[in-house]
């Protein structure tokens, strides 16, 4: 009997701890979502090339403060001067610290280095992962991705990061044109093992002038990786849903 009481007390303590942790996480997500909605969240781009600069510029135009980074930040002045004071420049390490939410848009071969070098700064953060193993040569990580899928492999490297596949399957030029109102807003497919992080990422897709199309977990996200139909469909959300065989109001 004594053992049973001890066991029950242990279980009850564990349950209380789990409930408290969930409540803290939910409050944290609520706060992040509120900051996104009010435009007060700090964003960062690691890899401000074609894709990173297109999405980051759209966010600056939407009123967010964005730090752009590459390994050669001195080359980013022309970009940030056009965008005004909300566009900042930093090293990838500074961007990983500055961004409460981070967009990753580096060549795929850089993932082992980036995930290792900025693990401390990125821990627990939401990361919008736009990378593709497509056209990345014969690196070991590309072989892993061919077997298991880009999203699953990236989450394996970025342990402790709330990874959401976003902006990976749409051309940078299409995102720029959507955000500038030069074409109908493009559908941007999203996948993540973290549904709360994905909802927050979806708001940032809207902020970039596009329409989020929630696909499912990282395994389901293979449907918009290269060699699959949703990759570079560059189309409206309605047509994208049809291509991905999602219900119309998903
Ligand atoms: N272009 C598109 O239309 C498009 C669309 C969807 C997804 N994507 C994906 O986005 C990623 C980038 O493609 P992109 O076309 O934008 O390439 P890109 O124009 O060559 O830009 C890549 C950027 O990453 C930086 N970079 C490279 N290695 C880095 C590292 N280790 N740490 C930090 N920054 C690094 C590069 O600058 P430095 O060399 O100076 O560091 C460069 O600014 C790829 O994975 C691609 O598949 C591209």
For this entry, give a set of tags.
binds NADP nicotinamide-adenine-dinucleotide phosphate; 250 residues; 11 helices; single chain; globular; alpha/beta; eight-stranded mixed beta sheet
Number of domains: 1
- Helix/strand-derived class? alpha/beta
- The best one-word shape is globular
Round the Cα radius of gyration to an integer and report it: 19 Å
Write out the distinct hetero groups bound to the structure.
NADP nicotinamide-adenine-dinucleotide phosphate
| Average pLDDT for all residues | 95
CATH topology, which one? Rossmann fold
At the fourth level of CATH, the homologous superfamily is NAD(P)-binding Rossmann-like Domain
Fraction in beta strands: 15-25%
Q: Summarize the biggest pleated sheet.
A: 8 strands, mixed
Distance between the termini: 52 Å
Oligomer: single chain
CATH architecture: 3-Layer(aba) Sandwich
Helix content: 40-55%
Secondary structure topology:
Layout: H1 2-38, E1 42-46, H2 50-61, E2 65-69, H3 77-83, E3 87-90, H4 92-98, E4 101-104, H5 111-117, H6 119-122, E5 126-129, H7 140-148, H8 150-157, E6 162-165, H9 172-179, E7 187-192, H10 195-207, E8 211-216, H11 237-243
The chain binds NADP nicotinamide-adenine-dinucleotide phosphate (NAP).
């Amino acid at each position: 009997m004594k053992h049973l009481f001890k066991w029950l007390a242990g279980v009850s303590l564990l349950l209380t701890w789990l409930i408290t942790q969930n409540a803290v996480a939910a409050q944290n997500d609520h706060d992040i979502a509120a900051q996104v909605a009010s435009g007060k969240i700090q964003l960062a781009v690691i890899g401000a090339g074609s894709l990173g600069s297109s999405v980051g510029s759209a966010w600056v135009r939407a009123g967010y403060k964005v730090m752009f980074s590459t390994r050669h930040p001195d080359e980013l002045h022309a970009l940030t001067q056009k965008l005004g004071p909300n566009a900042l420049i930093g090293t990838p390490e500074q961007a990983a610290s500055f961004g409460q939410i981070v967009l990753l848009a580096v060549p795929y071969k850089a993932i082992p280095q980036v995930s290792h070098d900025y693990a401390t700064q990125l821990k627990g953060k939401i990361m919008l992962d736009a990378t593709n193993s497509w056209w990345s040569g014969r690196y070991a990580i590309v072989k892993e991705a061919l077997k298991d899928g880009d999203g699953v492999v990236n989450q394996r490297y970025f342990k402790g990061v709330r990874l959401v596949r976003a902006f990976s399957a749409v051309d940078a030029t299409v995102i720029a044109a959507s955000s500038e109102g030069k074409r109908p807003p493009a559908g941007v497919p999203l996948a993540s093992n973290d549904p709360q992080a994905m909802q927050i990422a979806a708001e940032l897709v809207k902020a970039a002038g596009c329409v989020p199309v929630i696909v499912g977990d990282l395994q389901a996200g293979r449907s918009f990786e290269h060699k699959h139909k949703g990759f570079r469909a560059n189309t409206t959300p309605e047509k994208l849903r049809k291509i991905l065989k999602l219900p119309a109001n998903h």
